Amino acid sequence: MPLPDDEYFMQQALKEAQAAYEADEVPVGAVVVLNNTIIARGHNQVELLNDSTAHAEILALTSAYSSLGSKYLPDACLYVTVEPCIMCCGAIYWGKIGRIVYGASDEKNGYRHLTKENWPFHPKTELVSGVLEHECAFLMKSFFRSKR
Fold first, then answer.
1. Which of 16, 25, 57, 83 is catalytic?
2. Which of 144, 141, 89, 80 has its CA nearest to residue 111?
3. Per-residue pLDDT tens digits for 94-110
4. Can you tell me the distance from the alpha carbon of 104 to that of 130, in angstroms, rounded to the nearest whole number?
5. Are 18 and 44 within 8 A, CB to CB?
6. Among 12, 31, 61, 102, which is 20 to 30 Å from 91 by CA?
């Protein structure tokens, strides 16, 4: 069961995803939260930066590390509108993020093999999925529908 403030922070991530949508980027948004405060935000900027690694999670994590002067975030929570891809899972793993909350599943590009043998995150990381799932999925579906 999501914590009551998970929806609030996911709404903030959705605002980032909307900014990506308006910039004609795949609409994924992320926020990093520490002590109930947003310390970093990011949305996909792959097209703008001409960089296939400029995913919302990577940009938000980089901003969080910079603002804290730290390379690890064991007490932070990453909220992301869509299930992280394998590349982002690696970045999240190395950052030792304490908690990840995502909205919509991504059967094509997400990382869904969540067993003990191939858990993509730090062993102490907690994972919550499905927070504002319909809103997050709707934005993605709307974006790709407009491209067809």
1. 57
2. 89
3. 999 999 999 999 887 77
4. 6
5. no
6. 12
DSSP state of 72: -
pLDDT of residue 39: 97
Q: How buried is residue 44: exposed, middle or buried, by Cβ count under 10 Å (0-12/13-18/19+)?
A: buried
Structure tokens belonging to residue 83: 């299930």
Cα–Cα distance measured from residue 10 to residue 81, given in angstroms and rounded to the nearest whole number: 7
pLDDT tens digits for range 55-84: 999 999 999 999 999 999 999 999 999 999
117 is catalytic: no
| Residue 3 scores a pLDDT above 70 | no
